[in-house]
Amino acid sequence: MLKYLVFVGAVVSFASALYYSWLTLKGRVQPNRVTWFLWFLAPMIAAVAAFSAGVTWAAVPVFMSGFDPLVVFVASVVTRHGSWKITRFDLICGGISVLALIFWVLSRNPVLAIIFSMAADFLAGVPTLSKAWTNPETEHVGPYIGGTFAAATAFFAVDAWNFVSLAFPVYLLLFNLVLWLFVRRAGHER
C-alpha cells in the first residue's frame, strides 16, 4: 500500500513545477534553459531504463523528475524574461551532459544508462547549482522541496533493493536537497 505514495510525491512535484513555471512566466525566477532541458532528458532516459529493467512504481519519481522540468523549460521558452543568461560554462556542462547520454545510447545497458543519466543530470544541474549559490534571488525553493519529497517516496515503492531501483532516487533526493539548501541559505524562499 505504501508504494502508492509515489503518486502523492508525483502530485507534489508536479504542483511545485507548475508554481515554478508560473513564477517563470511572471519573471520572478529565471531558470537556466540548458539545465532545465537536460533535466527533462536525462531522467526520462533513466526512467525508460528502469522500466525496461523491470522497476515499476519506484521509477515514477524518476519519470516525474524528467516531466516536471519539461513544464518549466516550456514556460521559460514562451516568456521573454524567464531565462537566466546562458554562458560558455553552461554550454560546456550541457555538452558533457549530452555526451554522457550518447554513451548510454551506445551501451544499451540499464546499469550504465542510470550511471550516465545521473552524470548527465548532475552536469546539467551544475550551472543552476552555481546560480543558486551566487544568485539565490533568481531561484525558488519550490521545485527542490517537491523534488526532494517525490524522490523520498520512491523508497516506499522499491520492490528490489538494488542499484537499478535505488541509484537515481538517491541521487535525486541528495541533489534536490542541496539545491534547496543553496537557495534557502540566503533567505530567498519566496
SSE topology sketch:
Elements: H1 5-25, H2 33-52, H3 60-78, H4 88-107, H5 110-134, H6 142-153, H7 163-185
Helix pairs in contact: 1-3, 1-6, 2-3, 2-4, 2-5, 3-6, 4-5, 5-7, 6-7
Gist?
The protein has 190 residues and is mainly alpha-helical.
Task: Offer a few descriptive terms.
190 residues, mainly alpha, 7 helices, 74% helix
- Which overall shape is indicated by the principal axes computed on the Cα atoms? globular
The unreliable regions are: none
Instruction: Give a short account of the largest sheet.
Output: none
Strand coverage percent = under 5%
Count of discrete alpha- or pi-helical segments spanning 4 or more residues: 7
Any idea what the radius of gyration is? 16 Å
Structural class: mainly alpha
Give the helices and strands as they follow along the chain: HHHHHHH
**What number of domains?**
1
As a percent range, the share of helical residues equals: over 70%
- Average pLDDT, to the nearest integer? 83
